[in-house]
Amino acid sequence: MQDHGFIRGSLAALAACAVALPVMAQSEDDTLVVALPTFSEQTMTPWGGSGQRKTYLDTVYEYLVYLDAEGNTEPGLAESWTVENDGTRWTFTLREGVPFSDESCGTVTAEDVKYSIERLIAEDSRAGPASTMRRIIDTVETPDERTVVVNLSAPDFLLDAGYFGEAQQLGIVCKSYSESQGEAVDSAPPVGTGAYVLESLVDGSEINMVRRDGDHWRVDPQWERISFRAVPEEATRVAMLRAGEADIAPVNFDSIAGLEEAGIRIVSAEKTWSPVIRLGGVVQSDPERFNAELPWADKRVRQAMNYAIDKQTIIDELFAGQGTVASGDTPVAAWDSVPPYPYDPDKARDLLAEAGYADGFDMVLKTFTTTPGAELPLMAEAAALYLAEVGINATIEPTDWPSVRSEWTGGGKLDFAMTHRGFPFPNPENGVEAGFSERSLFASFTSDELEAKLASLAAETDRAERREKLTDIGQYIRDEAGAIFMVLANEPYGVGADVSDWSIDTSYVYNFDRAGKAQ
Amino acid sequence: MTRLIMGRLAEALAALLLMSLAIFLLSRVTGDPVALLLGDGATAEDRDLLIAQLRLDRPLWEQYISFLGNALTGDFGQSVAAGRRDALELVLDRLPASLSLAGVALGFTLVTGIAMGVLAAITRGSAVDLLVRIVALLGQSVPAFWLGIVLIYIVAVQWGWLPTSGYGTTAHYILPALTMGTFTLAAVTRLVRASMLDALGSEYIKLARIKGLPEATVILKHALSNSLIPVVTFMGAFFATMITGAVVVETVFAWPGIGRLAYESIVSRDFPVIQTVVLVITASFILANFCVDMLYLAIDPRMRDRG
Amino acid sequence: MTLLSIRNLTVRLGRDALAPTILEEVSLDVMPGETLGLVGESGSGKSTLGMSVLRLTPPRLAEGTSGEILWDGRDILTMRGRDLRALRGAEISMILQDPMASLNPVFSIGSQLTEALRRAGRSDLMQAAEAALAEVRIPSPAERLRSYPHQMSGGMRQRVVSAIGLAQEPRLIICDEPTTALDATIQYQFLELLRALQGAHGMAMLFVTHDFGVVARICDRVAVMYAGRIVETGPVREIFSNPRHPYTRALLAAVPSTSTAPDRLPVIEGAPPSIGNRPGGCAFHPRCPMAGPDCQRQPPMERLAPRHEAACWRAREEAAA
Prior knowledge:
The complex is a heterotrimer.
Chain A: H1 5-18, E1 31-36, H2 54-57, E2 65-67, E3 73-75, E4 78-84, E5 89-94, H3 110-120, H4 130-136, E6 137-144, E7 147-152, H5 175-181, E8 196-202, E9 206-211, E10 225-230, H6 234-242, E11 248-250, H7 256-261, E12 265-279, E13 282-283, H8 299-308, H9 311-318, E14 323-325, H10 345-354, E15 361-367, H11 376-389, E16 392-398, H12 401-409, E17 417-422, H13 428-436, E18 445-446, H14 448-459, H15 463-480, E19 484-485, E20 487-495
Parallel strand pairs in A: 1-10, 13-18, 15-16, 15-17
Antiparallel strand pairs in A: 2-3, 4-5, 5-7, 6-7, 8-9, 9-10, 11-20, 12-17, 12-19, 12-20, 14-20
Helix pairs in contact in A: 8-10, 14-15
Chain B: H1 2-26, H2 34-37, H3 44-53, H4 60-72, H5 87-122, H6 127-141, H7 144-158, H8 171-200, H9 203-210, H10 215-252, H11 258-267, H12 271-299, H13 301-306
Chain C: E1 4-12, E2 21-30, E3 35-39, H1 46-53, H2 59-63, E4 65-71, E5 74-75, H3 81-87, E6 92-95, H4 109-119, H5 125-135, H6 141-144, H7 154-166, E7 172-176, H8 184-201, E8 204-209, H9 212-218, E9 221-226, E10 229-235, H10 236-241, H11 246-254, E11 302-305, E12 308-310
Parallel strand pairs in C: 3-8, 3-9, 6-7, 7-8
Antiparallel strand pairs in C: 1-2, 1-4, 4-5, 9-10, 10-12, 11-12
């Protein structure tokens, strides 16, 4: 009975709200947009945080040594170098006339390199390799402007490809600029020798790089700008690729099929990480950390666990076939010859019976997700199903990486297993030490025999011998079943049609400054 | 009035103090940042060095007192993870993004929710009413994460009307605000519909009609002004829902706000940032509730005589 | 010449012809300047009748309304939005039952009063509002304009409601039990005020009440309702001295000699029938001391005297015992 004119008016107003909204501009033609899961600490110095920041920092900072697709060294800011004194004295000759992006800095000098090294290994450095580098680097000398001499306290024949290479964190900074910034340097605009400089940034959201004027000594960048976006949610990154808003973004394995259908190509960094199940409490050489009560304190039980799981099927189902069965817990080239455990549940049962666990046992398997590593919880579930087949009853406990990391490094006799993702170390010897040396808080498996092998490796002054000893260590860890080795996995990236050629050959080397532009 | 404000101020300080203690203790329950900051291969000596650097070797109460003392002078400490940046500065940098998103979402929610609630009430029992009620029910049952992803895929990927994510232009606000506001929108709609129906059946609406006032005046002035009182009452709660929802929405839409900062700082066990972000959020809650109280006084004359 | 003429007004609970009725075939006239009392127990439909005149019944009842309500020869029931708004307040106004609920709690008295005055085309709104409050004998009216309803007593609020009702100088004012919620002394004062206002404005009044005591004090004529029908109408004096319908008699018998307990309903054997459960024929017969077999049929309205009508087969008989 009331006047309904008012209602009609309201409806019209509502409808008006839904009318066309401002239509969006596509991503600008000259800008390469890279969507990353995280900016990590979003600090701008090599020493200000983890290696994950290399995604954006490597367009600004450059390294003494670069690596080709096969992992061979190539000259970088160092034109040439020699190693003497049984691998404890390295002399780098710097390339001449490479200018920093800040004019007041001039060109790269030996002082800049010395400062960069010392800053990276300083006690307050937050760089991942800082502590291990600090232990081996004894002194840095600068006999002249173009020469840097590094004296080591232990032999390292792979310093060039390793700690000083492009896959690590020794980006060369301008000493005078860095010192002038004082405490604020971590968040000050970075000054390096790379082809790009920071143009603008939105905290936690965007880091925009712009190409420097003039020719660059190393790369010929095709994109005027590179815009890095922090996009934590994978589904959103996939949507950005599909909407043409992002040109490159890491994606999960289960997004691959859909992206390819939508015309997005997948570029995979091959074998760059290693999903694994680490067994706690088997730091056998340290009585504080060795839990002898555990079923898997017995080598046969560890082997049985490796035989029990059909890893190839897990790779096919969970990793979209993008990986190979692992024989170690981190990707190490020297271990390529080490054969993985085959899938043999009968053998697993026999070994368990021999060890006195014919009826199996109960265990806790903790799991979490990381990037990459969204698949870890599913991998844990799959592994638990296979383990149940041979009588091992694994209870899955979801947790998060910081918690489990605190627990793992906290010392004491651990009594659980955890999923983990291993990353390759540019110098594999360092990786082996981190995981299998009693000195390392992160060690998951040690033995007196292994300690001896590691000591022998550290003391070895012959390059070929070193590689052989490293392979031998890999074989030993495999035979001892130091972990449940699972997968050497690829890391897939979705790449839009505007990008012509771009590839990743090594972990932590992203080549965004070398991304091609489709015509 | 002054007494009311002073009372609120005392309450606010007590709440902040209590919150600071709670968050100080809670954030330390599941480990510290040391394990995360240590590089692979670090030794026990490296760990001890780092613990000393971060002053985590001091007794908990001493850490708390020193935190509290510094906080009173405006020094909330330095971020452990983000390059020793000033924690307060880090949080304040991110605050505008969150507040503006929550503000837009709340504005959208209130305008649309009130409009839909009024519409449903005045067309009670009609198809429009039914539709509004179904939408409201769905809005309260759809998880924000799911809704956000679906909106991105339909509106941004399929139709290409809006950007998928990110921060910067007006267009960037629409999808996250929609996602953030939907739950509250449904709540507001139901609340307004119910209180509108109450109001429309009231004697004072009869009197307004008896005066011969146009229907629009009857509904928008006389009925709506009363129906808004419960909405204002719940406004503090709505604001809280938005800020809590911010973690999910800011993650899905890559929005650089404090929701994500809170999440990231918890993941990295960045104690100074966790403490600062929680205290800033608490303070903004207190401020929001104070605003609600003031609004309440403005809208309901009965409250003015009570205070 | 009648001011308001209600013809065969039937109100059902919905559109359905079989839906229960609240009002059945009600016909009633209001003359200019007169005060007509509409008396009945609760549930008799008397409030619905008042509401129907201003088309303020809830949508379901509005749908089920038939008959005619003639005002100046035009049927109010067929009026559209604008005409209806022109009628409300300006021609016919109403004072509602509950003074505590009929003022909007969030607007000041001044705001609610000037709203009505503005429609009456007054330009000197604040002065007019002050005068209107003064007219209903509210002390310090200028200050009261800034008050909110919750700051006033029930009696004061009802005066404000009256001022709002009278603001546009209507020709008819419907009072729906305006004194029920007030206590006795306030009630008396208010009735006096109403009577004075009616005299001053020369308007007609339809006074809905369950209280014959109130009727005696204020009305010229009375219509008695029972179960949705008018059972007897006549001048107050005649109805009091010579009630013809047994229900009217019962009501009168139940009136306390003085209005000490005006809130209490008259006491009659049995209970009035609920809507949808009304007996056939004369609805009162189950409670009627004089009922006979013929009461199974609906009695017609019968003229007993020039202005006195009743609907009862026994209307001409004297009361039993």
